[in-house]
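Quick one:
INPUT:
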């Protein structure tokens, strides 16, 4: 079982908020607008990446590549209309509140831009308990996930060694980023039948597994 962390570094989309199906719909509709058809595997590859990185990738998949900004001009209004519907992921609020209550440092390490995070977080005031933030458009960020830079920056801003941080992720890109940074990684996949928490990454089917582990390591 992983030792108790000094900090938890949280992804946002698909980890704390159930936004990934909404983003996928936006990319699918935008691709269709330009004659493309994204399959499930392609949509999975977009998870956890920064907006413009996704747009460049989707453009490369189209029958005829288009300017990434043209893709975003179609995709962003669709997603913005859907995001207020996003619910908290099961166990997310309780986990964040527990860290806040017991003094475990926290940071949000997300590929989403600051403006987007503020918009999608507005219906969820409990997210304000995570005060430290690393956004996808952070001026100090040298590269986005799967590069280790986002989690390295999050740990540095908290002043905590990266190997004493738990990183909580749901995407391949985010997991690769956190592993490369040196974090103990928890990867959420709701379709898992049984959680496996002995390896790195620890593969879990609910954030409640992380909360239970934190409580047990604090005894």
């Amino acid at each position: 079982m992983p030792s108790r962390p000094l900090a938890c570094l949280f992804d946002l989309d698909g980890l704390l908020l159930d936004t990934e199906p909404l983003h996928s719909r936006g990319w699918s509709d935008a691709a269709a607008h330009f004659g493309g058809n994204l399959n499930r595997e392609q949509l999975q590859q977009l998870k956890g990446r920064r907006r413009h990185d996704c747009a460049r990738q989707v453009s490369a998949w189209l029958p005829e590549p288009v300017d990434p900004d043209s893709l975003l001009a179609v995709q962003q209004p669709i997603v913005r209309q859907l995001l207020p519907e996003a619910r908290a992921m099961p166990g997310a609020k309780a986990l964040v509140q527990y860290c806040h209550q017991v003094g475990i440092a926290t940071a949000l390490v997300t590929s989403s831009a600051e403006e987007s995070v503020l918009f999608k977080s507005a219906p969820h005031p409990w997210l304000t308990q995570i005060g430290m933030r690393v956004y996808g458009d952070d001026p100090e960020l040298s590269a986005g996930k799967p590069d280790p830079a986002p989690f390295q920056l999050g740990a540095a801003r908290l002043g905590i060694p990266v190997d004493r941080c738990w990183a909580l992720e749901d995407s391949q890109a985010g997991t690769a980023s956190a592993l490369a940074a040196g974090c103990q990684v928890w990867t959420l996949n709701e379709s898992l039948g049984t959680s496996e928490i002995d390896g790195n990454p620890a593969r879990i089917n609910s954030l409640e597994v992380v909360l239970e582990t934190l409580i047990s390591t604090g005894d």
